[in-house]
Specification:
- The chain is mainly alpha-helical and 86 residues long.
- The chain contains 3 helices and no strands.
- The longest helix has 39 residues.
Amino acid sequence: MENKPKRPNSYLALAIISTIICCLPLGVVSIIYATKVNSAYEDGNYELAEKSSKNAKTWGLVSIGVGVVGIILYMVFVGFALIANA
């Protein structure tokens, strides 16, 4: 009987949420990596499953970060526009 390592987290929920709410292009990259986790694990490629899990998490968090920075920049520019027009 083969001793399988624990299945890594796919971070699919993080990937989907970051895609819908924050940043579409980077979130899609996260979804692609997230979907590779389970298939790589089932194929016995545990190293690829672990790497895909880490990449899905990283890209999901980057997507959220870019979305937050974008919202902050938008609010700053709108604020300056309102001040300039006052």
